[in-house]
Write a structure and sequence with these properties.
Blueprint (H helix, E strand, L loop, with lengths): L5 H35 L5 H9 L9 H27 L6 H29 L3 H24 L8 H25 L1
Helix pairs in contact: 1-2, 3-4, 3-6, 4-5, 5-6
């Protein structure tokens, strides 16, 4: 009779443990995909909500509070990027004066929006969901004021329209997560 080697005992055990690990990982990802879908059901732009949240690797293991943080950070990052775009656009020496004024106003609006989202992150950490809701809605109002400024001045509203709309959609994704968090507390 041949003795059983430790390798022949470890191989099936290793395969078994790997299989359990893979099933567990798939179950966690599936559960988080369901949570993301649940959050995004409450957002006006479901497809953008899902795509943006799933683009962040941390969302695969995040709970509802974590998804709300991710959504706020995505909106904040977008506001920061838009601010940088506006500042770069203002450096153009051949810019039309009306557009320049509108961009200058928008620069202020996006600085305010970024500060409001920073306040939202702090409020979310403190579980002040009502405050988060207020600050995010104020940030959305800033993006809308930027858009309205172009329309009122007869400027080209398409200069920042896409960026304004994307920012508002990302903020609405955060509001959807905050809404669910607030419901959980009730």
């Amino acid at each position: 009779m041949k003795p059983i080697s430790s390798f022949s005992l470890l191989l099936p055990l290793t395969i078994f443990l790997f299989t359990i690990y893979c099933h567990h990982t798939i179950a966690i990802q599936s559960a988080n995909t369901d949570l993301i879908a649940k959050v995004c059901m409450h957002s006006a732009h479901n497809d953008i909500c899902i795509a943006s949240l799933e683009s962040e690797p941390a969302s695969q293991k995040a709970d509802l509070h974590g998804l709300a943080l991710i959504a706020l950070r995505l909106a904040t990052s977008n506001a920061t990027d838009t601010s940088a775009y506006i500042i770069q656009s203002l450096k153009n020496a051949t810019i039309d004066p009306v557009i320049e004024q509108c961009l200058s106003d928008c620069s202020e609006h996006y600085l305010d929006a970024t500060e409001q989202l920073d306040d939202s992150l702090a409020a979310l950490t403190a579980k002040g969901y009502g405050d988060v809701n207020t600050w995010v809605k104020a940030a959305i109002a800033d993006a809308q004021a930027c858009e309205d400024g172009f329309k009122e001045q007869g400027g080209n509203s398409t200069v920042l329209s896409h960026r304004n709309n994307m920012f508002k959609q990302l903020c609405n994704n955060a509001l959807a997560a905050i809404h669910l968090l607030a419901q959980e507390l009730s």
